[in-house]
Amino acid sequence: MDVNGKFHKGCYMESASYNPSLGPVQAALVAFVASGGGGYDEIVAAVLVEKEEAVVRQGDTARLLLKMVSPNCDFRVFLLLFISKWMCVKELTWFGQISIVIHLMLKCCSELVER
Description:
Elements: H1 24-34, E1 45-51, H2 59-69, E2 74-83, E3 86-89, H3 96-114
Parallel strand pairs: 1-2
Antiparallel strand pairs: 2-3
């Protein structure tokens, strides 16, 4: 989220070869720049939502990247638990807007799973 309250989102994008893949925070930074975002110092908050059982985690890389480009960014990682086809957030202690974003993301994900 930038200083104006605008959300910029990204997801992991894998390429046929391993190296050119983009992590979710890298993709969100591309979206920030592409939408006319200012300097990286205008990024004030970031959230990464991952499956708790994921073999590969993006949190450490995302934290390092954000620390370098936007050191004052408040970065949080939320882990998802999968219970049957329902997902729930293991930890939700951040500000209210993030719960709305996660709720909408989960709704979109569940619609994709049902297709």
